[in-house]
Amino acid sequence: MRYRLGVDVGGTFTDILLIDEETGQTFRAKTPSTPHDQSVGVLAGMRKAAAAAGISPAEIGQVLHGTTVATNAILEGKGARVGLVTTRGFRQVLQIARSYVPGGLAGWIIWPKPEPLAALENTIEAVERIGADGSVITPLDEDDLRAGLRRLAGNGVQALAISLINSYANGAHERRIAEIAAQELPGLPISVSSSVLPELREYERTITTVANGYVQPQVARYMENLAAKITEGGVDGGLYILRSDGGLASAATAADNPVSLLLSGPAGGVTGAIWAAGQAGFSDLLTFDMGGTSTDVALVQGGTARIGRETNVGDLTVRAASVDVRTVGAGGGSIAHVPELTRALRVGPQSAGAEPGPAAYGKGGTAPTVTDANVVLGYLPTELAGGEITLDRAAARTAVATVADAMGLPSVEAAAQGIIDIVNENMFGALRLVSVQQGFDPRDFALVAFGGAGPLHANALGRLTGAWPVIIPPSPGVLCAYGDATTSLRDEAARTYIRRFSELTDAELHGILTELAETAAATLEAEGVPRADHTVTFQVDLRYHGQGFEIPVPVDIGTFDLAADGQGSGLAALGKVFDAEHERLFSFLLGNEHELVSARAAVSGPRPNVQAARLPEGDGDPAAAATGTTLLYVDGAETETRVYDRTLLRAGDVIPGPAIVTEMDSTTLVLPGHAATVHVGGSLLIRPEA
């Protein structure tokens, strides 16, 4: 079976990409998302893509899926009722939290503190205590524990989280509690902190473990339902889920550790962008994924996405590895409104979603959206997704006219231009968060734009950031699905091990890293990936002794080649890397001794051998791809411009702006004063003509 199927479920559309691994040929499908049961949209898109390829679903070897089920459970507050077991004296660990209030100086006045994912009445204390060195100070009182678990059963908890103090150093008590809980609460999903997050800091470890339990039943049901649906659809291959860190996990592994899936969807886009930009010869890039509901941005350096140690979803922050993606509520479905109090135009974060969608969709929506503004300005053609979706220009004008009337603007076009300008500034702010705020100059990076709406706004974002070229990859509307289909299996193992460098040797740290790599490698071996195909990377969390926070630093394991005296140059090299990163982030260094906090190893399998398509050479003139002309309202004036069919373009063709380039899953706008060059790999490279 030589076909791989990538699936990305968004808030508005479900994107499907079927890849022939031998030829690199792709077949796309885009269907409306089905929020009531996402597997319905997935199955419909899968059948559609298989029909386009002229194959039977039985020829699909693997289904690789980026999912938002865990994310939506958090955002919508529809997770399980979680019971929590913690050490006696720490029952209020979630209520105390970190005493951090978002917002300005007066944020605490207006900020409604979110309710903990495990209620206080569903939290019990275990009589036990483990020391920070892993020694047993107070043995576990099993009789008292059983009584507490029975109370939780009476409260109707649907999942159980176990997080004891210092269990990162010794998880024996947690494992025993899990065994007892399986007897007292049979069939209940159990999350154990020493397995979910074996790291220092009791609050972060507890909230991450509780979040895992909160989404676990819903994710497990979805995985089971989806696996059954694709089997019914005739697919015999395995189901794999994209993790937040950009790696794949089997459906069973993902269901056991769903907290690692909270940014599954956005991670697929970053993975796909890295692959597409690499085909065009770029490895330093900003990714810009604009869909119907939100926009996700990330920074990639040297062909590798920055991996953060925290995942943020709504008001929830958990300690889980994820691609460092920032999200803003700006998408094609974002609603424009004019508050009565300020009379100032606002765009988002409210979205029209898939149902009823923008007014132009003709499904009953009446609120003005970004999509409606693009239709009014002529940037969007009246047919999308290969003619399957017809846009109602009159309805879009009627919706946007409400903004023009509320603001007293002279024309509907002026209101539409205002909507586009504001949403572009919102997305520019997100790009600054991953670049300028992290010490990077966006002008040193290319900008890769994708998602259904990304190519429409990409040229304008290039002007705002100075990031050139702007790269529009092939099939930009389904690039997240492309990322799902072109990534590899991955697992990670971590351990907290607090030592000052003077108390640590190269041999000791080398041994810890090697042991962690063995643990992660075993997971991939169980999935059938031989050791010879493993790629191992290492990372440690370091700080200056006395600091209250740490910085993740990559480890060059080669510097730990031990000399005859058993000491290499690994710790010295790590110290220099940490100093450089600390200075880049904070512009100063301290003289304190370096200190290790945690170590981790990540093991990845091989990326699939997917051949990139190659376009035939053209003569630089795109005239053969022109399909007509249209009127655009751009830079405050109406102008006539050519429309091009992207499937007819050839390598080397140069499209001067203003211009519209259409394809099945997206539309690209080239602004005046810019030109798009067609790369042999199929990407459009937009640069200023000057």
UniProtKB/TrEMBL annotation:
Gene Ontology CC annotation, any one: cytosol
Residues in Hydantoinase A/oxoprolinase domain copies: 205-491
Pfam families xref list: Hydant_A_C, Hydant_A_N, Hydantoinase_A
GO molecular function: 5-oxoprolinase (ATP-hydrolyzing) activity
Coiled coil regions in record: none
Name of the protein in question: Hydantoinase/oxoprolinase family protein
Organism per entry: Actinomadura craniellae
Hydantoinase/oxoprolinase N-terminal domain sequence ranges: 4-184
Annotated transmembrane regions: none
InterPro entries listed in its UniProt record: ACX-like_C, ATPase_NBD, Hydant_A_N, Hydantoinase_A, Oxoprolinase-like
Domain Acetophenone carboxylase-like C-terminal: 508-677
GO BP annotations listed: glutathione metabolic process
